[in-house]
Amino acid sequence: MTPILEVSDLVLSYGAARAVRGVSLTVGEGEVVTLIGANGAGKSTTLKGIVGLVKPQSGAIRFCGRSVTGKSTDWLARNGLNLVPEGRRVFAGLTVEENLDVAATASRLRGAALRREIDEIMQVFPRLQERRKSLAWTLSGGEQQMLAMGRAILAKPKLLLLDEPSLGLSPKLAVEVVQLISRYSRDHGLSVLLVEQNAQLALGSSDRGYVIEHGVISAEGPAAGLMHDPEVRKAYLGS
Asked: Is 3-92+157-237 a CATH 3.40.50.300 domain?
């Protein structure tokens, strides 16, 4: 499988504190890859390093076959590498439809094309159709997460990075949100790098996975294999 993202020996620090210590990983075209680990292991920092929110001390990042190490977050977003950050961050005072309009405008969609794209997002996330005219602040946490992902998809990314999409959601909603994005990836060929604390949910919705501990990749492989790895099960799956 052709890699769309290649991260090699990435080192990231906050001041004197080294958070990521030489992480290497790949995401293939149309693949869902998950990065699991405990709180503070370096999962979210790795995503921030990939999208330029934390500047790498060393290492290399290649996207679509070209070096993007040191590129700005805005430049990466314009070129198809998008992050849905932890906490959703929707525009609370706008309706669901207006939130989607903003994202679609950024991708230069207009008129009938804009309406078609928004209608497609509503089909992917039917709850958004039901709440189309509702202000974003009135949505549940799961609905806000769906809206955040819908906005990101409207920007037409080649690779979508998701940071803890199940955070703060009920178990039922968490499953629904992660499975929806996994289904969208499968149906539309969107590449996804998913960071999750819920290891069972993440591995059950992914093609491959990496385990990060103390800023270092400690295990990797097909998601099904990691699900049955005794050490991974003991540390992250509660058995």
From this structure: yes
Tell me the two tokens of residue 120. 């497609």
Q: What are the extents of the domains in the chain?
A: 3-92+157-237
Nearest CA to 78 out of 55, 58, 46, 52 is that of 52
Taking each helix axis from N to C end, the angle separating 141-154 and 171-188, rounded to the nearest 10 degrees, works out to: 20
Pairing of strands 3-14, 17-28: antiparallel
Q: Is the pLDDT of residue 89 over 90?
A: no
- 196 in Cβ contact with 36 (< 8 Å): yes
pLDDT for 3: 93
Residue 180 and residue 93: Cα distance in Å, rounded? Answer: 25
Structure-derived torsion over alpha carbons of residues 106, 109, 111, 112, reported in degrees to the nearest 10: -140
- Verdict on whether the full-model pTM lies above 0.85: yes
Both structure tokens of 66: 């070209």
